[in-house]
Amino acid sequence: WADPQFFSAATNNGPQPWCSESNRDPSFPFLPPSPLRLLSSQSLMTSVARFLFSSSAASIRPTALYASRLRSGAACVVPSTARFFSSSPRRPPSRRLEVVRRPLQTFSSRFTTSALAIMASDLATQLEKLSIGKLESFPGCYPDVNPVDIYRSHITSLLHDVTGVDKPIIYNALQWTQSLDKGDLVLAVPGLRIKGKKPAELSEEWLAKFPESPLIEKPVSFQNGTFLQFWFKPGPLAKVLLSQVGQRGKDFGKNPNNGLRNVEDPSQGKKKIIVEFSSPNIAKPFHAGHLRSTIIGGFIANLYDGAGWDVTRINYLGDWGKQYGLLALGFDRFGSEEALAADPINHLYEVYVKINAAMSEEKEQIDAKEKAGEDVTALKDNSLDEQARKYFKAMVAGDEKAVAQWKRFRDLSIVRYKETYARLNIHFDEYSGESQVSEADMEASAKRLEETNISEKSEGAVIIDFTKHVPGKAGKSLERPIIRKKDGTALYLTRDISELLHREKKYNFDHMIYVVASQQDLHLKQLFKIIELMGYPETAKKCQHINFGMVLGMSTRKGTVKFLDDILRDVGEKMHEVMKKNETKYAQVENPEATADVLGISSVMVQDMSGKRINNYTFNMEAMTSFEGDTGPYLQYAHARLCSIFRKAGVPDEEIATADLSLLQEKHAIELIRILSQYPDVVQNTLKTLEPTTVLTYLFRMTHVVSSSYDQLRIVGSERELMKARLALYMAARTVLYNGMRLLGLSPVERWVTATGDTTPAQRLLATSATRRCHAIRAREFDRRGAVQQRNILRSRGRRRIGSTGVLEDPGHRRQTRQMTRANGTRVAMRQPLSAD
């Protein structure tokens, strides 16, 4: 890595602005400032630096550094468009270093894919090496960002020659598979719309004519010729995949073409999308519903961001209404400035609970007196409920004191919310709210509703009777919502109508998504239909409601709601306790409390995203923090273990870049290569469903393949060239896992701590998965083979010893003993090299 201080000292100009802390990216402060995130080895950097600074009189103005990937596979640092000029008399200004380079790509993981980046080559070079001509272009085909699209285009051309079917029809009929045993791509023969012959006859005819290909094996028919399976040849796929992963790095899996208004003319800009999510009520802590909206909404925003859209994240706060008048009254009675400064949200919530309890008690007393025949007019006029209504009316009228108090509560709440959002890797571009909807906008909306005869008066209130505007059951299901109360007060729906139309004018969006619980299904249907009836059908079509189910089991024993901060604290403390049991590894973690917090948050988020959005799920602390099954801790462990491989291997990146990928011929290597190639398709498919579980399920499938590969694809102890090839493959797996976790909003950890004597999460997973019996058999076989191998070693040395586990041991040839749970609950000893961790 380049040292900014070295550059600063070499120029003799003192500290440079591009070396300052303010220029560091806060999301990855461990990297040098942006112009110096270089994808090259330290030795190469030193050589280039010595060349650039060979003259002590040279005065160099560093601007944007660029990286050039040369044919030799090395990365060289050069200035962009010759912006390194010399002011020395010995070097006239006309002499300059001129090289045209592509911008440097950076990665937000400490363990970068620099070796793969050096190895990378452009698409044209890859195709030339594979003896593939220019690829056909199809809508939605982007081979420069999705390696499988190379194969789709290639197969389409071959099938066109064989079948005579139009290429677009063939291309769209090729589908990716979720199960590797069904091939890499599959084609439904009936989907080609050929009449007169049965699928079996067509399949047989095509297979006989299908030519040899450098990319794919001969296709296979199944289900009586209804489908054709296509299997990629592992060698070419490995080269294409790893090169693209290295070239794109943290952007692998993203497709910025999706968000362009015109792919052929990028100058027309990106499509705009608004994602409204989270939306808590101010002065109240987060609860489960807000948590789900926050996690799902953050994921959707990340997804569209990666797809190249111009994303605006809006937090539409519940910050207006009579309840805030009641809160102000409660603060006057129960509030404390000291408590407010220390913990604003929780204190305001305590105040709100107390004033609500007082109001309920007061109401019971008034009702009792009214039933007894007493005159309660004066009591009602001076009740807390009436005082809250008057206070809110003053807020609406702009009373300075009332508005100032409300604004203080709002600002304190937002500050605290931002702290929670930061822990969840969430940020917003705009904090809006009901209070921000102007009276002028609401008056304009009300006037429009009257002019179009959509609204009508009913018993003093203004309503919309959908049965008069929407025929049949659809109209009845939308009911008769109130948009203004008798006293003229606007309701939530009234403000939402005006806010939606305001956003259309302000952002001119192409799409807007509301991430709101399924309890609001009717409300959002009413909103979209009203916008349509008002004469804005195109605006209504651009709006979408993404709903989700409830979280059960989130209450305490007393029946009160358990809030997010309490949940995160509890799971973080539990993970911290697990970490502290292993003192040695615990000491190696730089910030164990922060790591435990990340693990706890991952536990909560992964459990939330494990099922489909619309499904309810039960909050289960034991299950989410368990190492058994597909949990957040297991996913974090999988990433940390991949990181540990490179720490322990100690192979320089430039050496990994020279790996011979044709050596990756083992079954486990081929399976891992194939599943890694699916990641861009998984992300693309998720854009259609907006289901976080699609990406999460893929990551667990991929990590299972990685975990099952460690025994077969060992690093330490393998031949050097094979080791480099395997490291390149594991590097690609780590990049895909990192990118997927970041897409989900998780913060991948680089070190893992397990309790002493405990099984590792991977081993527990194997022991509890659906393939438990298979892995138990495999463990016994592995143990038997390890014992035989150990016995042979000891016999050759003339000494034998039986260890406490019943397996032969050799003190002079230490090997790590691990425990694994069999299906019947007993323990078996496993023999593995230390490198397996």
Quick description:
This protein has 837 residues and is an alpha/beta fold. It contains 32 helices and 19 strands.
Question: What does this protein structure show overall?
Answer:
Among the domains are: 4-106, no CATH class; 123-251, Gyrase A, domain 2; 273-448 and 491-551, HUPs (Rossmann fold, 3-Layer(aba) Sandwich), CATH 3.40.50; 556-602, no CATH class; 773-836, no CATH class. The radius of gyration is 32 Å and the shape is globular. A five-stranded parallel β-sheet has the order 10-9-8-14-15, with helices on both faces. Strands 4-5-7-6 form a four-stranded antiparallel β-sheet. A three-stranded antiparallel β-sheet has the order 2-1-3. The chain is 49% helix and 9% strand. It has 32 helices and 19 strands. The two termini are 27 Å apart. By secondary structure, the protein is of the alpha/beta class. The longest helix is centred in the middle third of the chain and has 28 residues, at 344-371. Residues 1-112 and 755-837 have low confidence and may be disordered. β6 and β7 (227-230) form a beta hairpin.
